[in-house]
Design a protein that fits this description.
alpha/beta; Arc Repressor Mutant, subunit A; D-Maltodextrin-Binding Protein, domain 2; two-stranded antiparallel sheet; 28% strand; transcription regulation; LysR_HTH_N; DNA binding; DNA-binding
Length: 298
């Protein structure tokens, strides 16, 4: 037997945490709509005494009379008019519970592990696209190190047993704090970097490329700090420790930074989905992949 908690608030009294049997609410609804005990009993497939007893039990629980009984039927009182829409809603929600659980059990599921320090705006755009393709998807976003159906990451981090689906590119730009001498410049030559304190991110391919290009001209960077993630590099730049390269997607909404391009070869990173090449794909992912092909160009 299903029990529910009915919260009744009227101008005269408040009853909180009252435990009601759904069967009693069904009896009440039938009486309210039929306006007749006999017709309501037939509708509920119970005897009149059982229906009347149920109504009395409900009235005792609520502490108020719901109907005026007469020879020609019953007339609903104010508490009955108040109770009716709530009772209908609760009974309908209880009726739909099994259906809701069945729907959830049959919904497509997808777990995406997302690399940190990506453009929040572009990730949100991707998720909006996913939602448009699979509106009933039960989606989970996981930490980058968590096993998942696919990974949103860099092409450089694709594993040998994975396929990479490119989605967008982010250019590396030189980032300086607001008020820095370079903040007003429109562009800077690569060789000029040797005159400024620089923050290094060893895992970053753009930083290693910059160091390599300067080395070709026998120039070096004045490295004053290191950080293992781009988010931490940004924190150091904001703190005024030095300048550094960061992806434009990471700093797109950071008001405390100024960005400027550096003359020389383009430095960028390509972001996309990595998924298994030789395993049976998650059904939702299999449906999603063709819809995301060419996403970066849209």
């Amino acid at each position: 037997m299903i029990n529910i908690v009915f919260r009744w608030l009227s101008s005269e009294k408040t009853m909180v945490g009252l435990m009601l049997d759904l069967r009693l609410l069904r009896f009440f609804i039938a009486i309210y709509e039929e306006k007749n005990i006999t017709a309501a009993a037939e509708r509920c497939h119970v005897s009149q005494p059982s229906l009347s007893a149920g109504l009395r039990q409900l009235e005792e629980a609520l502490g108020d009379s719901l109907f005026i009984r007469g020879k020609k039927g019953v007339v609903a009182k104010d508490p009955a008019h108040y109770l009716y829409p709530h009772a209908v809603k609760l009974v309908e929600e209880a009726r739909r519970l099994p259906e809701l659980f069945r729907q959830k059990a049959t919904r497509a599921r997808l777990n995406i592990a997302i690399m940190p320090d990506l453009s929040r705006r572009r990730v949100a755009g991707l998720l909006q696209r996913v939602q448009g393709v699979l509106p009933q998807l039960d989606l989970t976003l996981s930490d980058y190190t968590t096993p998942a159906d696919c990974r949103l990451t860099l092409d450089a981090l694709r594993r040998e047993d994975e396929i990479f689906l490119p989605l967008w590119e982010e250019d590396y730009v030189l980032c300086v704090p607001v008020g820095h001498p370079l903040a007003s410049r429109e562009r800077i030559e690569l060789a000029e970097l040797q005159h400024y304190d620089f923050i290094e991110c060893p895992p970053c391919e753009a930083h290693q490329q910059t160091i390599g290009l300067l080395a070709c001209d026998r120039l070096t960077l004045n490295l004053v700090a290191k950080a293992e993630s781009k988010g931490l590099v940004m924190a150091l730049v904001l703190a005024g420790v030095g300048i550094s390269f960061l992806p434009d997607g990471l700093v797109e909404d950071e008001a405390g930074l100024c960005t400027l391009p550096v003359s020389g070869p383009r430095m960028f990173r390509r972001i996309g989905l990595c998924y298994p090449a030789h395993q049976t794909l998650n059904p939702a992912l299999r449906e999603l992949i063709p819809e995301l092909a060419g996403y970066g160009a849209s």
